[in-house]
From TrEMBL:
This is Cytochrome P450. Gene3D superfamilies: Cytochrome P450. InterPro entries: Cyt_P450, Cyt_P450_sf. One of its GO terms (molecular function) is monooxygenase activity. It comes from the Eukaryota. It holds the Pfam family p450.
Length: 99
């Protein structure tokens, strides 16, 4: 919701999609969800930008390796930072997943 509040243009487009689909019904049916393509793109983009868990499941290296100049010994526990992986230096773009 915060991301939508920061981008009124995107919020208006999402509202228009829902209002066009729902019309007089006043609620969204389960069957309607597949038709809300822009809204699904917004959800995916939000999940990319704000993952539920910022760190992925820890893994243990099977062998020694070198990552970007850093020596990682065998049996080292490593974490992948999902939050950093999903960052875009420019901005969130629902159209990225709304193709």
């Amino acid at each position: 919701m915060t991301a939508l509040m920061k981008n009124p243009r995107v919020m208006k487009r999402a509202q228009k999609e829902v209002r066009t689909l729902v019309g007089e019904k006043c609620f969204v049916d389960e069957d309607d969800i597949q038709k809300l393509t822009y809204m699904k793109a917004l959800v995916k983009e939000s999940m990319r930008l704000y993952p539920a868990s910022p760190l992925l499941i820890p893994r243990e290296t099977l062998q020694k390796c070198n990552i970007d100049g850093y020596e990682i010994p065998t049996k080292t526990v490593v974490f992948a930072n999902a939050w950093a992986i999903g960052r875009d230096p420019e901005s969130g773009k629902p159209r990225r997943v709304h193709a």
